[in-house]
Amino acid sequence: MPDRGERLEGGRTAEQVRLDQAREQGVPWKTWGPYLSERQWGTVREDYSEHGDAWNHFPHDHARSRAYRWGEDGLAGISDDRQRLCFALALWNGRDPILKERLFGLTNGESNHGEDVKEYYYYLDSTPTHSYMKYLYKYPQAEFPYNDLVEASRRRSRQDLEYELLDTGVFDQNRYFDVFVEYAKASPERILIEITVHNRGPEAAELHILPTLWWRNQWSRDDGSEDTARKPTLREAVPGHTIAALDPEEGERALHCDGDPTLLFTGNETNRQRLFGLPNRTPYVKDGIDACVVRRQAEAVNPDKTGTKAAAHYRLTLAPGGSRTIRLRLDADGTAGGMMDRGAAGDDVFGTAFSDLFDARRQEADAFYAFLTPPSFSADEALVFRQALAGMLWSKQYYEYDVGTWLKQHGADPFAAARRIGPRNSQWHHMHNADIVSMPDKWEYPWYAAWDLAFHVLALTLVDPDFGKQQLELMLRERYLHPNGQIPAYEWNFGDVNPPVHAWATIFTYRLLKPRGDEADRRWLEQTFHKLLLNFTWWVNRKDREGRNIFEGGFLGLDNIGVFDRSAPLPTGGRLEQADGTAWMALFALNMLEIAAELTKSDPLHADMAVKFAEHFLWIASAMTRIGDDTGMWDEEDGFFYDVLRLPDGRAERLKVRSLVGLLPLCAVCVFDGDVLAEHPDIARRFQSFLADRPELVGAMHDPRQIGFDGRRLGAILNEGRLRRVLTRMLDEREFLSPYGIRSMSRHHADHPYVFVVGGQEFRVPYLPAESDSGMFGGNSNWRGPIWMPINALIVRGLLQYYAYFGNGFLIECPTGSGTMMNLYEVARDIARRLESIFLRDEHGNRPVFGGARTFQQDPHWKDHILFYEYFHGDIGAGMGASHQTGWTGVIARLMHVFATTTADGFLGSAKGALADRAVHEQHV
């Protein structure tokens, strides 16, 4: 553990002071950050094909030559929060056919398991204001195997492992460069940059380094003309040392370069000649620097040293084991590139003041994380915790998408008399997103997903509660939320349906913020509640087809978990009543009840809404659990919930797949302290009257009138008997309980796959602990066995809710059949520790996340750089899917923090319905 460092007056670290300044004084510490995408090509925004073929319309091969319309990507890059001016790294090893300006990966159609980045890069550190950041990229010295990766992957089936970059042999004998990129802010918009390169190979090797500055192209019009009044420029201000960047609206910025590089200038303009065989509007195009360096075409760059894209070209030869550092400084405050700390530094831009500032920011980052990191953590736990949070902060991205304009550009203007049907999102023409958004994975998923974002907030609020709050607020703004109340899903289909977890993330965030006593936080909660009312109403009106409080919703984020594609028409006809969809709505109703109850404490006018959502929850929970002749979701023989298939002839059948679908009802639970009922007896009277008139509602669910530990009440689908039955199955190592968490599907189906036959066609659902064996939903994710961090977090939360109600009197065998009895806090902690162990070194020094990759496990230059994958092998814990989905996998940081800072007794004494202890919130917020 690093030393906690020097504190400022009031016990605040320097980074916490910057966060306070940003919130309270509007100091723009967050204006610059890691807001570039890792992949802008192959996205919906850049797709102008006839039929929505995004991957093929704008492939990787076009990216170096074609100006983007909606955003920018780059290697280890940063930009301002409107992505006007961008900075990133380009590299060339003297052998590659192109500059390495962006990460390479396979498209959905090229890989045997869907799109996949084929590079090694790591988000090593970041503070929440990005006052200090550190990134690592591993660059092979041999020619990068672009074609080999594509062709070998195409030959592999869905039953084969993916062909990875290490498999190509390009890293053999350690013939690669470690390229570390670090940023330190001298002021909000003055940024110091260090690029440190290590030759890990056995021989001397040459490397070209090209730090690159460019303007996003916002001046080109659809008719081929330019908005010259808005067009910014770059020029050489000091030969070989300074690039000046002039914005007509915001003044001049400057990039200062240490040493004696060659400054190269071109335009961020599409190379129409290369791509389409059409004349270029200018001889200086986006790939001009690539042509100059790689193909030695000096005429490809502007001899007048002006343009809209520029690079400082450094050419280094590194001895084996040797290293070199390049220093730059970006002055982005519009003051024409003045000196850093003029009075102290004089004309020595890269002298002592530069080094001292970098050292200070590193120490401040250490102090910030030392304060945040529980003292009980081991050094390895502290490393995983910090890198998880660094990954969350590096995964911010500027996301712009004006859907109305995009549709017009497709000839699908929704208000035109004669128009064609747009390739997608035609009903979302109101949307104009242009914000910094937390991304699931900036290469594989460089677009937001609404339900992912709710889980991101769990980790983000550890380091920057205000940013987490702002992320939740974004999705409910009029530029996002559909007028009918639907929250947008993701750019491939905004109208798809994600689980309704926004209210849960909202009340969780509010409880974190409440101890600071800011009235603005309460107003935010009230405003959010009003928007969530629209979303709840949308769900009730659109997804409860017959008004029976049984919900559908399609795939609901769980991709291939079902027998059929749940977002497509059923091959049987009829409809599917979804246990997960209904459980999500029960949780939604409980969360809205929590918010209404909280608001009622200061404004009794919300009391009616508290009663409304209590009744909603009771109707939904009763519909899930009722007993009778009808085929319901609860199976009494199995002690488990299943989806129900309602056939056109009136018959019904449970689809008996043991999966997370049947565990999610356990998560629909909230504990209440009873304060609101005590302070508002009218609410208590109405609630009692409602239940007295409808005793059948609670016949098979938990009766909320029963008083638990410390006078608490519980809203839950499962009564104690059913809770024990579900837990017995969930905690069985032969079924859901893995050494590394809760599986998404029972291991029972490894030997007993579920089979459903209709019309001579067989639908088979086996246990698949690793990658998917089908192309459902692109084939790049798998919910039929692997461990998924977000659902595990919900399960842990649910167990803690039950513990706060039942206390130590409720014991369950864990694992099932072991003879070890635990209370529910201990069960939750046991699951969390299994999840943590995915990333921590075991007794052999190996990290399960790295599986059998020896380089990752043993090499000192690899083994402590953690990857936070999308999901994990259900039996061995190895990382699967997207390799940088710190987004929701970063929730591991919150889980680690909760159980390092609470005890069972402490939690029981202070639990108020949040995931973690109130006292812990007060200490760390």
Number of strands: 34
Strand content: 15-25%
Shape: globular
Helix percentage:
25-40%
The average pLDDT value, as a whole number, equals: 92
Distance between termini?
21 Å
* Count of DSSP-assigned helices: 28
Q: What characterizes the major β-sheet?
A: 9 strands, antiparallel
Unreliably modeled segments: 1-5, 337-346, 912-925
Give the radius of gyration: 28 Å
| Widest sheet: strand ordering | 6-7-8-9-17-13-12-11-15
Could you please describe the fold and organization of this structure?
This protein has 925 residues and is α+β, with helices and mostly antiparallel strands. It has 28 helices and 34 strands. The strands form eleven sheets. The protein has a nine-stranded antiparallel sheet with strand order 6-7-8-9-17-13-12-11-15.
Quick tags:
globular, 9-stranded antiparallel sheet, 6-stranded antiparallel sheet, alpha+beta, 925 residues, disordered N terminus, 28 helices
Q: Brief description of this entry?
A:
This protein has 925 residues and is of the alpha+beta class. The strands form eleven sheets. It has a nine-stranded antiparallel sheet with strand order 6-7-8-9-17-13-12-11-15. A six-stranded antiparallel sheet has the order 1-2-3-10-16-14, with helices on one face. Strands 20-23-24 form a three-stranded antiparallel sheet. The longest helix has 25 residues, at 519-543.
